Amino acid sequence: MFANLLSLLVLGFFAFQPAFTAPTSTALVPRAFTGEATYYDPGLGACGIVNTSSDLIVAVSLTYFNKYPGAGTNPNLNPICGKKIRVTYEGRTVDVAVEDNCPTCAEYDLDLTMTAIKYLVDDPVFVGRLKGVTWEFIDTDGGDGGNTGCGGVAAWTATSVYTAGQKAYYGGYIWTAKWWTQGDIPGSSNAGATVWTQTSTCS
Ligand SMILES: *[C@@H]1O[C@H](CO)[C@@H](O)[C@H](O)[C@H]1NC(C)=O
């Protein structure tokens, strides 16, 4: 009975399909957001990369991070990692890369580094929270890339073997192996990780 109903529905869907124009993209992802911004001192971020307060990086809310298309159980492989966003406040802008998440932020709030927030206000410590900050993705893949990698480079996996010259996508960056490696997380602090050279940002 259930199977019959299902096949009726499926048939119905196909029967109606010629009436629709094929969509160009299956995922509808909002592109511009409004929230509040503040600053923090980064370290090892959720994307698996160590950044400092002088880097132009940003933490998006944990809520948004986990909702991002392609987000899975390993935050380091979240396709939002390395994506560039443009943040605007009272006519001033800064472009920053997403490298972290912020558990205490409301959905569209941002946590910027001190260097980044100074592009928006002269005295961030005095102002505290910036209200009515808008931001949008400026990456080239539309901000909704799948969790499959970047620009044809597959996501790094702990079980894959990589030999000299082979590339992997991890934490928003493309990495190139210098020699045979397996299980060494690109950019991590373990000794084996020196096998990886960071080649480019995924944009
Ligand atoms: C974040 O840190 C990595 C090194 O850990 C560096 O390569 C990258 O350029 C930094 N990102 C930015 C936007 O400065």
From TrEMBL:
Signal peptide residues on this chain, from the entry's feature table: 1-21
Key words, A-Z: Hydrolase, Signal
InterPro entries, sorted: CBM5/12 (IPR003610), CBM_sf_5/12 (IPR036573), Expansin_CellWall (IPR051477), RlpA-like_sf (IPR036908)
Presence of the UniProt keyword Membrane in the record: no
A GO BP entry: carbohydrate metabolic process
Highest taxon, organism lineage: Eukaryota
Cited CDD domains: ChiC_BD
Name of the featured protein: Carbohydrate-binding module family 5 protein
